[in-house]
UniProtKB/TrEMBL annotation:
Pfam families: EAL, FHA. Residues 148-390 form the EAL domain. Residues 57-106 form the FHA domain. InterPro entries: Cyclic-di-GMP_PDE-like (IPR050706), EAL_dom (IPR001633), EAL_sf (IPR035919), FHA_dom (IPR000253), SMAD_FHA_dom_sf (IPR008984). One of its GO terms (molecular function) is cyclic-guanylate-specific phosphodiesterase activity. This is Cyclic-guanylate-specific phosphodiesterase.
Length: 390
């Protein structure tokens, strides 16, 4: 258990472990890929990156191990890793306190892959892969908001021990303020990861951002399948996911779990690479009877071209465009009203996000928004509060 809860901003260096450096001939023969471990070799040390250069690669307390792990619960020779081209096998060597893959203890040689979390008693590492020619002498990474040695442990708790929860924020009709649906938002109570920004920043540093995004949608589907459908459920995607061919299949699976709920997938503006990709993505969603929303409209680059060429089902106007609208300039109101009218002319439903007071909400209703979302209409809450069983 962590005794000092003070959060620090630290720099740590992922140093390449040069033990057992191969000869030039060996290096040439093994150019196809290099596997490495990122993690801390003791509870007191910073994170290091160690290239798996030996076959097999042994880990343990022994000075003869390829990677020496300095912790009392580590066995002399704790485990070994065998790499054969693209195949990586992790084998426990009869350790006292166990070897784990993504939180599950292994007793037999187990295949592992890029991004897996490998735990040797109390010490955890992430397995990574790089092309041989990409190897740096060292790599530095700044960790903002937490001590480096806790990064892997914390994300392990989030992803594989499911220590996160989903909050649901109401989206209401501008016409009569009735419930149109809810947006699912990930939350975490682990110190240093309470805000979604901190959570995804840490996941991104470990290459787990898409896994976290997918896990949040799966949890949403599992939770809401127990509740009567209340029209639409809006779920988020990470910008890195749009080009992942597995995304459509994953969305189809949760759509099946949700049953009568109408699934709406939100795409952040940073996720739109080109018109053809988003056009194909929209068609794939519609083939599955899933709707598309452009999120954070107006927060950055203009989406007018996308709105014209690939109109979504919904456009969510960023809070920067509607917050303080009631006290803003007439020019600001006119611009927002024109954009809302453009969407209406193209059968796109509009959502005003970030409404925190009645004045902004009333003006958004007057200028023609279809739907409203913000603290004034309901804060993100756990399912038991937002979705009572009735």
């Amino acid at each position: 258990m962590r005794s000092n809860t003070t959060i620090h901003k630290v720099n740590f260096m992922l140093k390449i472990n040069q033990q057992n450096t191969p000869s030039e001939n060996e290096h040439t023969q093994r150019r196809e890929a290099s596997w490495f471990l990122d993690g801390c070799c003791s509870l007191e040390s910073n994170a290091t990156r160690t290239i798996l250069r030996s076959e097999p690669f042994k880990l343990g307390r022994s000075p003869e191990a390829d990677l020496i792990l300095n912790a009392n619960d580590i066995s002399k020779f704790h485990a070994e890793i065998i790499t054969v081209g693209e195949v990586v096998i992790l084998k426990d060597l009869g350790s006292t306190n166990g070897t784990y893959v993504n939180g599950c203890r292994i007793t037999e040689p187990t295949p592992v892959g890029e991004g897996d979390l490998l735990q040797f008693a109390s010490l955890e590492f992430q397995l990574g892969r790089m092309e041989e020619q990409q190897q740096p002498d060292y790599h530095t990474c700044e960790v903002d908001g937490m001590e480096s040695r806790w990064m892997i442990t914390q994300m392990h708790q989030v992803l594989y021990q499911k220590q996160f929860w989903m909050a649901y924020q109401p989206i209401v009709s501008a016409k009569d303020l009735s419930r149109h649906g809810v947006e699912a938002l990930i939350r975490c109570d682990i110190p240093g990861l309470q805000s979604p920004f901190q959570l995804f920043q840490t996941a991104t540093q470990l290459g787990l951002e898409t896994s976290l995004s997918e896990a949040s949608r799966v949890k949403t589907a599992e939770e809401l399948s127990q509740f009567p459908a209340q029209s639409c459920i809006f779920v988020n995607t990470h910008p890195h996911e749009l080009l992942d061919t597995r995304l459509i299949d994953a969305l189809n699976e949760i759509n099946q779990i949700l049953g009568p709920w109408k699934l709406v997938v939100e795409i952040h503006e940073a996720a739109v690479p080109d018109l053809q990709t988003i056009r194909e993505f929209k068609q794939s969603l519609h083939d599955l009877e899933i709707q598309l929303a452009y999120d954070d409209f107006g927060a950055g680059q203009s989406r007018l071209l996308e709105l014209i060429e690939v109109p979504p089902d919904y456009v969510k106007f960023d809070r920067a465009m509607v917050d303080g609208l009631a006290t803003g300039s007439s020019r600001q109101v006119s611009i927002v009203e024109s954009l809302v009218q453009f969407c209406r002319d193209n059968q796109i439903q509009t959502i005003a996000e970030g409404i925190d007071n009645e004045q902004d909400g009333n003006l958004c209703r007057e200028i023609g928004f279809d739907l409203l979302q913000g603290f004034f209409y309901g804060r993100p809450e756990k399912r038991e509060t937002t979705l009572p069983l009735k």
